[in-house]
């Protein structure tokens, strides 16, 4: 529906003045590096040598920002806006400058003529600011350079912030992406009692870079039916005549906010439990509105040609330069800025004050709101280990008990959530349901379990939504954990790229306060996907993460339950990191007591003296290294075989928890100095390294070390199927018998002396092949193995 505002003429005039001022500033940022107020005729030397930026979406973003200002000020709203078309950076920067939050954040960019000039010049200029909305932009939690994530970020920001309105501008190009299409379902998870509200604003300007957009070309009734099918009540606003659009959008904003307030009131004070049909706004305005209608006889406004820089040749083409000046003067800057370049009273009439301004909201600088997470003492959950390798636990099940306590301790403050794609119970974290349910606002059946309107476990079979919800939640000052099957974490490779870049940039901005880390728990991992088979086997997410900014990324492979607890305690307390923790959910041996686990995790890598056969004082003959729970098991079993069959061999066992420890110190903050690495792994002795993932990652991390020529890595080689657990490691040459054979092959002079031992190891591998095909289970000496060291 379309409605008309009852705002008076002066009120509408003030809205239009602000919108024109923002448009003027957006154009100036794209083109000018001098003469910001056009106090003289534009000349080529006033124009930037490289013209970068996106004009096409900017008028629409300016329009939305202008109208949000009015309702925030009029209603006293706490609000945040997620700008989906983040490439419209000039618009968001322009509005931050107009409201004064930009100058407060960057005092060298004053709200006057000199500051305007600096604002213009720095945009997309060496040493300046990016062309997209970025961490440098006050009021933003969303970069927007990669489309698809705006709406899921908006919902993440709204969860557990009941006082907050999160407006979200969705470009019609972004609306074509898979993640955005799934994001419409987030309204089935929004609790009107404990969460804030999200107001989606679908901005249809008709075009992407070079093509029409799908939703903009749908007939209005078909689009309306689609959005209603998603559970929204669309309010349609359309036009290209400014006064009419201002009136219609003002009315739409008021209607939407009245409906939101009504839904919240019904749920919070009247006990309503029916899922609301939340309002949204569909805004249709021309792409590049108020810009050049045509250039060189070719239509521009309202076409894809307005997407970036409508007048590209202004430095060299006098006609284009003249058109640019006419364009900028069409906004009547003399009415908008005084002689000193300051915005006039009319422009600022609807601008909110203080932290109500969109560029100054603390919700977009989440560290301002962040509180320490109450993690219980690990002693309350640690498993008893009287001796290594004698008892077994399911590590993630024990971790689930710890997370249950965290969830219970945050019940009142509601600032911790666990997200995952339908796998919380499968990943053995079901203890969480003792403290909270699963967020759910849709229909329920008697057979359902653990569904709850106010639940803080969030499950949806879309890794994109899980990632986006959690990012929005963390960026607005809360804590969380993303639990996933290891193989399918790759679905969010691109999303985590953007979050890592955001964190890396934020760390360089003193005004951005640290936020809680993005924590992944990857379980149901490659070595225990023997039942699901090859499709579920991929340990490469850690490779992807370790390619990224070293000051931000961390990867941990705890080998047992107590090291997982210690690792979890660390990552949940950390700030401004992306932490990836890989841990098994199946029963596995416990190797370390809690105190030993804490010390080992603090080191990140260390010798397990009790596991080796070093004879004090001399260097070992060989180093057995391992990282990951199953590689640790196979390494320990190999160490036992060597102890039994080659007792004269000096074997050192090294376990690695923190993969970045393998890097040189100058490459990563956790990296080892060469002297420490050499002391641990030796400079010239063979190192047989059993690694959880793809073996070349270890080579890449350690290639500069003195002993790299002696490093031999076993890991996953893309040999997988539905088979037995031990057959998985054997197929990939990671099994204990292969490791013993590697030792015999690599220790100088040992091959001749130990030929019978090597042959015995090869025979067991062959016997295994026949056994599993006959019995369907692993060899008894494997299935019933325990550590006898």
From TrEMBL:
Q: Where is the Xylulose 5-phosphate/Fructose 6-phosphate phosphoketolase N-terminal domain?
A: 11-368
User: One of this protein's Pfam families, by short name?
Assistant: XFP
Lyase found in the keyword field: yes
PROSITE patterns membership: PHOSPHOKETOLASE_1, PHOSPHOKETOLASE_2
Q: Does the keyword tRNA processing apply?
A: no
CDD domains per the record?
TPP_PK (cd02011)
For this UniProt record, the keywords arranged alphabetically read as follows: Lyase, Thiamine pyrophosphate
Domain of life from the UniProt record:
Bacteria
Instruction: Name the InterPro entries on file.
Output: Phosphoketolase, THDP-binding, Transketo_C/PFOR_II, Xul5P/Fru6P_PKetolase, Xul5P/Fru6P_PKetolase_C, Xul5P/Fru6P_PKetolase_CS, Xul5P/Fru6P_PKetolase_N, Xul5P/Fru6P_PKetolase_ThDP_BS
Q: Xylulose 5-phosphate/Fructose 6-phosphate phosphoketolase C-terminal domain: from which residue to which, for each copy?
A: 585-787
Q: Required cofactors, per record? A: thiamine diphosphate
What EC numbers are recorded for this enzyme?
A: 4.1.2.-
- Similarity field: Belongs to the XFP family.
Protein name (record): Probable phosphoketolase
What's the source species for this entry?
Answer: Streptomyces halstedii
Provide the organism lineage as a comma list: Bacteria, Bacillati, Actinomycetota, Actinomycetes, Kitasatosporales
